[in-house]
Amino acid sequence: MSVDTVSLTGWGRTAPTTAVRFRPRTYEEAAAVVRGRGPRGALARGLGRAPGDAAQNAGGSVLDMTGLDRVRALDEGAATVRCDAGVALDRLLRILLSRGLCLPVVPGTGRITVGGAIASDVHGQDHRKAGSLARHVEALELLTADGEVRAVTPGTALFDATTGGLGLTGVILSATLRLKRVTTPLVSVSTERATDLDDLLARFTAAGGDRTPYASAWIDLLARGGATGRGVLTRGEHAPPSALPAHARRTMRAPRTVEPDRRPTGPLLPGGLLGRTATALLNEARYRSAPRARTGELRTTDAFFHASDALPDTNRLYGRAGLVRYRFTVGYGQEETLHRIVRRISARRCPAFRAELQRFGAPSPGWLSFPAPGWTLAVDLSAALPGLARFLDGLDEEVAAAGGRVCLAQDARMRPETAAAMYPGLGAFRELRAELDPTGAFRSDLARRLDL
User: Fold this and answer.
1) What sections of 20-174 are H helices per DSSP?
2) How many other β-carbons are positioned within 10 Å of the β-carbon of residue 196?
3) pLDDT of residue 255
4) Could you tell me which residues come within 8 angstroms of residue 190 by beta carbon, excluding any fewer than 6 positions away?
5) Rounded to 5 degrees, what are φ and ψ at 350?
6) What 3-state DSSP class applies to 288?
7) Residue 358: alpha-carbon gap to chain centroid
8) Residue 266, pLDDT score
9) Do the beta carbons of residue 106 and residue 196 sit within 8 Å?
10) Distance (Å, rounded) from C-alpha 251 to C-alpha 208?
11) Which residues of the chain, if any, have pLDDT below 70?
């Protein structure tokens, strides 16, 4: 097991802190780190894709779980897989697709580990039908504060605290996931342009739209006036063999994929590349180049779900200050709140190139899980924007007043009283942590900041 002292940040590159990093190769080595932790505690970390400080532990220990990356059992008949927590989702997907299987929930990046995905209770574009990942976890192996490994199953308090619990109940060592069957490794995609936010919401909910499981929309948050909230809606479903050309049906197999390039794209720029003017031009080009309506386009799974992964380190485009991801959800019937927030961002002329709208269905049992029935919008903003903290505090007030919440797993700046107001399960979560981990073995910068 290697050990070093490193400065760590989230994917947003804000608020770096220093920790001792351990790279365990076995469950026994991970348990030894937890037993020998110092006064600042320990925390599991995967590939570092949390935008904020959820996977940092200033002055403490961090377990880099990427060395625990074995796929231990794949039961094609039962459509289940058991694997270590350090397995990356993009690698797991390649294995599954070659066997006619797929993850039931595919988040927007494949560069996260199975353990990180469960600890964040990730969702995908099909949340209204599939829910979040916790609904498809059959069992966990959890390393707890006493250094013991517990088998954790759905329907228990520890399961509900761990799924979406941000690594604060223990170290997820392995998981058994239920899978779904697919007949091809391709996705049939339809695309349509919407002229404003009302048009976009109507297209999301149009009759027949729910028959397609995957749906998300990009919003142009620099458009104003009558075009405020204009965007491009993309839907998808796993393509049947009949949708493929004849030659492809004869030789059907998972498309060849290349390991993601994880090298930096180049030096960080003091002001970043995504200023207001550049972003406005990119947004205009993106909107105009999208088809007014197109159906039947075939894309690989990577191209559909993980298009942003093709461009390594896009977070570097936001400059040395990094980026802040603001993701919130408000319930159905609170569309006016969504309208107000979109108008406020548009009026402030925030250069937001990434702005993604999705719909949520039934909530997860996880006490700190983010999804709840309604609309969710994720926006990436430069951390260097003047007055950003005060501006986002104001948006928090809008979201809280509408009964919504901000995503903890992606947060970098929320206040503790705001988190407590948005997450009614936080009290039960704190009580279980106090009982299970009275000495505070598992800690993170986010947990200290938000008093979790």
Assistant:
1) 27-35, 89-97, 114-120, 127-130, 157-162
2) 19
3) 44
4) 212, 234, 235, 236, 293, 294, 295, 296, 297
5) -70, 125
6) helix
7) 13
8) 42
9) no
10) 33
11) 207-209, 246-274
Angle at 368 between CA 324 and CA 371, to 5 degrees: 70
Beta 17-23 vs 2-8: how paired, if at all?
antiparallel
φ/ψ of 144, rounded to 5, equals -100, 180
Q: How far is CA 201 from the centre of its chain?
A: 22
pLDDT for 48: 94
Query: How many residues are listed for the chain in this entry?
Result: 452
Q: What is the pLDDT of residue 249?
A: 56
Residue-wise over 273-296: b if at least 16 C-beta within 10 A, else e?
Answer: bbeeeebbebbeeebeebeeeeee
- What's the pLDDT score for residue 338? 98
pLDDT score for 257 = 41
SS3 376: strand
Q: What angle do CA 321, 324, 328 make, to 5 degrees?
A: 170
Q: Which residue has the tokens 């290697």?
A: 2
Q: Under DSSP, is residue 156 helix (H, G, I), strand (E, B) or coil?
A: coil
Three-class secondary structure of residue 431 per DSSP? helix
pLDDT in the model for residue 321 = 86
Q: Which residue, among 183, 194, 190, 266, has the nearest Cα to 228 in the 3D structure?
A: 194
Distance separating alpha carbons of residues 376 and 33, to the nearest angstrom: 38
Regarding pTM above 0.85, the answer is: yes
- Using DSSP, state whether 315 is helix, strand or coil: helix
